[in-house]
Amino acid sequence: MKTKNNKITIRLSDEILKKCESAMVLSDCTVRNDFIARAIDFYAGYISAQKHVDFFAQAIHESISGTVKVSENRLARLLFKIAVEMAKLEQMLATINDMDEETIRRLHIRCVNDVKKINGIIRMEDAVEFQRGK
User: Fold this and answer.
1) Could you tell me the pTM of the whole model?
2) Where is pLDDT greater, at 122 or 29?
3) Nearest alpha carbon to residue 120 among 110, 128, 112
4) Could you please report the per-residue DSSP string of 1-67?
5) Which is nearest to 20 in space by CA: 9, 31, 10?
6) What is the pLDDT of residue 75?
7) What CA–CA distance (Å, rounded) separates 106 from 114?
8) 20 close to 14: Cβ distance less than 8 angstroms
9) Within 13 Å, how many C-alpha atoms sit on residue 110's CB side?
10) Distance of CA 55 to the CA centre of its chain
11) For the chain, what is the radius of gyration of the CA atoms?
């Protein structure tokens, strides 16, 4: 099926015409009309693709944000559970041991320094060795 070509008038600057002529050689177009039609097709596709990229970028962002939010909520619940268990352990230890304020303060300072030194990775074996004086 043959497409109908419409005749229109356009105004182009000398500079644009020079660009058109030099690009026609590179693009294998023998007629300026073919080159301009290809250029319009290309630019229309470029604009359309740009809108799709914007849409996909937004969709990906929303998807990742949702995943991060779910992970954040899960981590918050787990940290809460760990904090409850730690509070129970602290209460049991406070009940068993009768420590004065100075001993508690020194213990706190030592624990803060130990955690900084080991970057938060606490091993029970290390604590037992320390308590046994090794």
Assistant:
1) 0.42
2) 29
3) 112
4) -PPPPPP------HHHHHHHHHHHHHHT-SSHHHHHHHHHHHHHHHHHHHHHHHHHHHHHHHHHHHH
5) 31
6) 93
7) 12
8) no
9) 9
10) 17
11) 36
